[in-house]
């Protein structure tokens, strides 16, 4: 089947989509498929898992590939839960800790099984889910984001899902106060907030003292015009002279991030890299317990492929076709699965080819998610597969085992 060509969407003022990712790590726009494994497996040979949420536009990778066989050091069978400490010392008596809480969090890569585990844990704890997913805020983007179903949301209250239409831009700076307000409301009712998602920056913006630099469209437009006149290399050279740490984490060809770094320095008088403090030394604003899910590289690759196949069978192409006739924000258009199929509609690309691109990009994104959360010393990692043992482990960690 080939998707018939559609008229291309008009370009926005910024050709690169605002990426709610860590702004200092270099980009990697694509990943080669794994030659040892079919991109889309035959479903007769695999049990299709319940979809878990995919994530937002590509984030920057860490220095190593956490899904590679050499870099991915997993605990042994007797060490299914790794130890990690909150940077703030634990109080022997929780009542002596002035921070709000308790707040529980479940993080990890896409297709790791976060949604399934969150529902089981929330029902046992009487918790309410606060989404930390950058794309679940969009109404009508349901299949491709593996949004919890109405039935699942009926079982457990969910917050920060279906907030805006896909034509509306939605940033992490806008998300932060909404998520914190939801957590405060849940705590105020005497219930437990369970923060769930794989969008690392969204998670960290909520739980840490994270400050977003200001922005000024006029300054940004002037810098973009200057880049067009004198060339991006000249602006990047300026960045290397004024903020070497930021330049080291931004690719020389990345116009948007180079302009953003120079914009922030002009508006604040501070190096762009100085805003990294909350990332480099995270300190929880809550009494926080974090469980990370890591099914391992081989299982994760298989689950990603199976999930994309399941989404296609559930009507992902038809969902994207409906969205193609509506105005879409730059952020929504770049969501995993939607970008590839929208591009295919414009170019007449066969559906199987577009779906293979979705698998490749999702696997690359899962690697970057792991790299992000691996940097956070508060995360305690479970390598258990989905099932009762993983539920029991989560309950034990969250103090209800």
Brief summary:
This protein has 401 residues and is an alpha/beta fold. It has helices at residues 114-125, 150-155, 172-188, 200-207, 217-230, 232-242, 244-248, 255-268, 277-280, 297-314, 316-324, 330-333, 338-347, 351-374, 388-397, and strands at 103-107, 127-131, 158-159, 192-197, 288-293, 379-382. The longest helix is centred in the C-terminal third of the chain and has 24 residues, at 351-374.
Structure report:
By secondary structure, the chain is α/β, with parallel strands linked by helices. Helix 2 (150-155) links the parallel strand 2 and strand 3 (158-159). It is built from 15 helices and 6 strands. Helix 3 crosses helix 4, helix 5 packs across helix 8 and helix 11 (316-324) crosses helix 13. The radius of gyration is 21 Å and the shape is globular. A 6-stranded parallel β-sheet has the order 3-2-4-1-5-6, with helices on both faces.
Question: What's the arrangement of secondary structure elements?
Answer:
Blueprint: E1 103-107, H1 114-125, E2 127-131, H2 150-155, E3 158-159, H3 172-188, E4 192-197, H4 200-207, H5 217-230, H6 232-242, H7 244-248, H8 255-268, H9 277-280, E5 288-293, H10 297-314, H11 316-324, H12 330-333, H13 338-347, H14 351-374, E6 379-382, H15 388-397
Parallel strand pairs: 1-4, 1-5, 2-3, 2-4, 5-6
């Amino acid at each position: 089947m080939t998707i018939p060509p559609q008229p291309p969407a008009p370009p926005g003022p910024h050709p690169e989509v605002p990426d709610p990712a860590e702004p200092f790590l270099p980009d990697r726009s694509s990943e080669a498929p794994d030659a040892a494994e079919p991109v889309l497996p035959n479903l007769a040979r695999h049990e299709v898992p319940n979809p878990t949420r995919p994530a937002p536009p590509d984030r920057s990778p860490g220095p190593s590939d956490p899904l590679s066989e050499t870099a991915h050091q997993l605990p042994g069978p007797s060490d299914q839960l790794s130890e990690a400490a909150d940077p703030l010392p634990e109080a022997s008596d929780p009542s002596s800790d002035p921070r709000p809480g308790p707040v529980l969090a479940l993080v990890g890569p896409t297709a790791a099984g976060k949604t399934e585990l969150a529902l089981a844990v929330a029902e046992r704890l009487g918790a309410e889910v606060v989404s930390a997913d950058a794309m679940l805020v969009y109404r009508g983007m349901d299949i491709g984001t593996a949004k919890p179903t109405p039935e699942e949301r009926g079982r457990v209250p969910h917050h920060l899902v279906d907030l805006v239409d896909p034509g509306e831009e939605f940033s992490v700076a806008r998300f932060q106060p909404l998520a914190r307000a939801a957590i405060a409301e849940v705590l105020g009712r005497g219930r437990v907030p369970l923060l769930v998602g794989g969008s690392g920056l969204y998670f960290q913006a909520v739980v840490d003292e994270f400050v977003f630099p200001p922005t000024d469209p006029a300054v940004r437009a002037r810098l973009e015009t200057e880049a067009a006149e004198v060339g991006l290399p000249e602006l990047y050279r300026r960045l290397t002279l004024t903020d070497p740490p930021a330049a080291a984490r931004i690719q020389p060809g990345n116009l948007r991030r180079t302009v953003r770094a120079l914009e922030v320095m002009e508006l604040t008088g501070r190096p762009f890299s100085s805003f990294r403090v909350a990332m480099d030394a995270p300190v929880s604003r809550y009494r926080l317990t974090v469980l990370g899910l890591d099914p391992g590289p081989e299982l994760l690759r298989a689950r990603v492929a199976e999930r994309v196949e399941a989404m296609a069978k559930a009507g992902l192409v038809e969902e994207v076709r409906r969205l193609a006739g509506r105005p879409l924000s730059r952020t929504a258009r770049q969501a995993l699965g939607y970008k590839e199929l929208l591009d295919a509609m414009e170019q007449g690309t066969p559906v199987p080819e577009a779906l293979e691109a979705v698998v490749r990009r999702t696997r690359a994104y899962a690697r970057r998610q792991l790299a992000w959360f691996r940097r956070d010393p508060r995360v305690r990692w479970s390598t258990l597969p989905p099932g009762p043992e993983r539920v029991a482990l989560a309950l034990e960690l969250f103090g209800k085992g």
